[in-house]
Amino acid sequence: MRASGNSHAADIVAGLSIAGLLLPEAVAYSGVAALPPQAGVIALFAGLVCYGLIGRSRYAIVSATSSSAAVLAAATLAMVGRDAAVRAMLASILVVGAGIAFALAGSLRLGAMSNLIARPVLRGYAFGLAFVIAVKQWPTLVDMHAQSGNFFTLVAEIVRRAGEWKMPSLACGLAALIALFALERVRRIPGALVVIIASIAASPWLAMRGVVLTGPIDLALEWPNFIWPADAQWLQLVEFSLALMFILYAESYSSIRTYALKHDDEVQPNRDLLALAVANALSGLFHGTPVGAGYSATSANESAGAQSRLAGLTAAAVVLILVLLFLPFIERIPEPVLAAIVIHAVAHSLRIGVFHDYFQWRRDRLVALAAVLAVMAFGILDGLLAAIAFSVVMLLRTLASPRLAELGRVGAHDYVSLARFPSAATVADMLVLRPEEPLFFANAEPLFTQARQFVVKRPRTKLVVLSLEESPDLDSTAIESLAEFCAWLGAKGITLRVARVKDLARDALARANLAQLPSATALDYSSVDDAVKGESVTEAASR
């Protein structure tokens, strides 16, 4: 009982600590989404309460996130342009659509779908997106109304119009940014709340010098009011809702899984999909921003000592009290301070070190860098699609570049690559080959062309052993190419044996009934050594 009481006390303390961070971030992310300030606050309540009641992670904090807010802003801008009122109503449909997409994914038990995006793509995209968001906050920081939407043209416009920067606004924003970075080094002090309180206290003085304040926040829960898009836009609506859901879940699952592994907790992705579905649908119905389990908020919750989802529910109660009692003060937050909060939040994704391993391993470097450049060059939505497409192309390029290894014997039974172990023994009339990638339609034909070249260079060959250990299954192109190779060997009087055939590939070859692999035992060589000796698993067992 005492342990349980201590746990509840820790959750309450954690909830009190993170509430000061979540509220100003929610207001700030509303601006990123091109929505009024109340949109982020509504989303914050929906996310904290729904995930606290339905979700399963002890540490996840579901609220408005910078990435989803940026994606939402890009989607509404692409569909209806800069009309703020129309964009706000369309945004609600998109957020509800994301909730519906989450519900469908949960009902179909697609909890592992975030694995469809490679980690280098996610890290590169997160880095590029954070950079884009930070740059797009600069006009707010200096009180300059920018006209450009593209990242590079926006950077050029900011530099070109440097003479229009409002120095009081810039000084306010930079002071807030410096304070946020300084206070984050002090544990258990909500730096964002300290900065907000200080800025509210200074707001009359700042307003007299032309610094823009947040302005009215209308938290009245209105009956949902949507604007239905034209018929031609429905496909776009579905595409953007799915994109929004995918971004939210990839970010959320990454945060949830990270802290589940750290604390040996069980991950229940399908249950989390349901929680995110309800949270986004509720937020969208009342014109809030999309919500997900952002890494910064989840990390802050864990660092504050949270032990269960009670911390999130406590934060929701504290935020409600703050809004009910101090809403007039929240309306006096200077806009440059909100911009500083956004920049500080995304700065945690702007770490070059996240790419260190890819360069050290010499793996996926181009994929990660392409994701960074794609979001800058093509925008937030098209950039993600371009980055995913590039990663798939690079994967196919690797798989479609056939590598065929010749094997030799070391010891009594083991067969290894001659390229790595040139001293391995070979036999003049026998050739042992192993494809180094899974056989499939893109590489099967060129790979068997290489195999023919090996045979031609060894005219005394009487037996070819083909190890299929890298191929869990065979598609029709691979089977046809193998059949042609079989026929070519048969015409030369050369025997073919296949070794280490996986179950699915074995079933496919058994159904194909190739002429040189006529019996079931011909597919049952469990090792290369067994195939060399001509001893199948069945024969070995009977012996």
Write the layout of secondary structure elements.
Blueprint: H1 2-32, H2 37-54, E1 62-64, H3 66-80, H4 84-107, H5 119-141, H6 151-160, H7 167-183, H8 191-208, H9 234-262, H10 269-285, E2 291-293, H11 295-303, H12 310-330, H13 335-347, H14 356-361, H15 365-378, H16 380-399, E3 404-410, E4 414-417, E5 430-435, H17 444-457, E6 463-467, H18 476-491, E7 495-499, H19 503-512, H20 528-533, H21 537-542
Parallel strand pairs: 5-6, 6-7
Antiparallel strand pairs: 1-2, 3-4, 3-5
Structural descriptors:
5-stranded mixed β-sheet, disordered C terminus, elongated, 2 domains, about 550 residues, alpha/beta, single chain, about 5% strand, two-stranded antiparallel ribbon, Transcription Regulator spoIIAA
Brief overview, please?
The chain is an alpha/beta fold. The chain is built from 21 helices and 7 strands.
Could you describe the 3D structure shown?
Strand 6 (463-467), helix 18 (476-491) and strand 7 (495-499) form a beta-alpha-beta unit. 45% of the residues are buried. The chain has 2 domains: 2-350, no CATH class; 404-542, Transcription Regulator spoIIAA (2-Layer Sandwich), CATH 3.30.750. It has 543 residues and is an alpha/beta fold. It is built from 21 helices and 7 strands. The N and C termini lie far apart (64 Å).
Overall outline: elongated
Helix share, percent: 55-70%
Largest sheet, if any?
A: 5 strands, mixed
Number of domains: 2
CA gyration radius, whole angstroms? 30 Å
Uncertain stretches of 5 or more adjacent residues = 536-543
Number of helices: 21
Mean pLDDT: 85
Distance between the first and last residues' Cα: 64 Å
**Which structural category fits the helices and strands?**
alpha/beta
* Portion in strands: 5-15%
How do the strands of the widest beta sheet line up side by side? 4-3-5-6-7
User: How many beta-strand runs?
Assistant: 7
Order of helices and strands: HHEHHHHHHHHEHHHHHHEEEHEHEHHH
